[in-house]
Amino acid sequence: MAIATIEPTTGTTLRTFQALSPEETEARLHLAEETFRTYRHTPFADRKRWLARAAEFLDSEAATFGRIMTQEMGKPFEAAKAESQKCAQACRYYVEHGEAYLRDEPIDTGKDRSYVRYEPLGPVLAIMPWNFPFWQVIRFAAPALIAGNVGLLKHAHNVPQCALALEDLFLRAGFPRGAFQNLFIETRDIERVIEDTRVKAVTLTGSEGAGRAVGAQAGKALKKVVLELGGSDPFIVMPSAKLEEAVETAVKARLINNGQSCIAAKRFIVHDAIYPEFERRFVERMGRVKVGDPMEPQTEVGPLATEGIRQGLHAQVEKSLAAGAKAPVGGKLPTGAGYYYPPTVLTDVPDASPAAREELFGPVAVLFRAKDVEHAIALANDTPYGLGASVWTREEAEAQRFIAGIETGMVFVNAMVASDARLPFGGVKNSGHGRELALHGLREFLNAKTVRISAGALPPPTEASANE
């Protein structure tokens, strides 16, 4: 598959890039290993200063980075700028909290002196997607680099300029040349890099199929792996909810990033008592969404990232309609240039149809009716995925039943699901395993080394030795 910038608004190929030769890939792997040997011992103050500098660039150059994102994958420009600024916030989070998260953790074992020491593993291969081309990378890179690991980025084939901009970002911020490197390699070459003994761990954000392949390859090579895969997140609305707020948030939650988000709400499960009114308002609002040029400020939804994604989504919609689903708005493939797809609502969806069983990666929402709380929970869990869930209720007991009953990695009450550097991010079931962000994400790629020193065997540590 070509490594190229293809503008989603026109379908025009703007730039192409050559994949690395085996010799060039080898040179980058060698540099990563050599850099790690010294970088892991770099004073924390230096890593902290460099990451803080990266945050400054992400803020001050948000418009520049945003244009690259919009040009390569079609997200609205305002959202792209916000993505860069969110990346800056994540960097600053680890600048502020990284040292405490890496500090030795004392364990009470009586008279003996025991603790857990957290050490970096080495070069980490990150296989990243196109939908949040900066944010997905930063939420791996910021904790990895602050902890003393080095990064190797295999980015999606359609966002090569984002990959180059990120590599340049860390270099300009002061990180050593081999601390963060871009790998322009073909998909068929990924397994060889995973198997390389210099690569110590793997993280992937992508499809379920990619997760299964990479997980199997990492397992065969006995490498630690974090998998953040697809989702079919439920958005549950109960009679006590503030309906207008729920509807407005539902539209935003479905259409974020042109509907191309693993944590976008995709299945809207609404109590029978309020279903007719919710459907009326939701359909009306989806029908008013402004679709157009992502560089225009008023645009709410831009094009999908590729023609293949658009055709795949439309095929799922058509098969669902043929099975008996209804589309009160949208559902028709537009003519003209670009990879646009209209905001679409599907109702009366048969159980066996794609809309009921598969992830829809685009601006298509599916409505379901629920009889009561238990029925809503059953519908929410009736999916192979388990990433996030949004629940709308003003009853505490009801909210707690949803929190306990829904099989997901995250539950948000009266709010849409969103990633936040302060909160661990990840799922269960076919949505993957492991966590990103917060303390949990930083420690995924660390060796938790147990140390136990017999009482009286060594002199008490000095303050200087304890901080080494």
From TrEMBL:
The keyword NADP appears for this protein: yes
Signal peptide stretch: none
Family matches, as InterPro entries: Ald_DH/histidinol_DH, Ald_DH_C, Ald_DH_CS_CYS, Ald_DH_N, Aldehyde_DH_dom, ALDH_GabD1-like, GABD/Sad-like
Keywords: NADP, Oxidoreductase
Aldehyde dehydrogenase domain boundaries: 3-451
Family matches, as CDD domains: ALDH_SSADH1_GabD1 (cd07100)
One Gene Ontology molecular-function label: aldehyde dehydrogenase [NAD(P)+] activity
Family per record: Belongs to the aldehyde dehydrogenase family.
PANTHER family, per database record: SUCCINATE SEMIALDEHYDE DEHYDROGENASE [NAD(P)+] SAD
Listed name of the protein: Aldehyde dehydrogenase family protein
Source organism (scientific name): Stigmatella aurantiaca (strain DW4/3-1)
Origin organism lineage: Bacteria, Pseudomonadati, Myxococcota, Myxococcia, Myxococcales
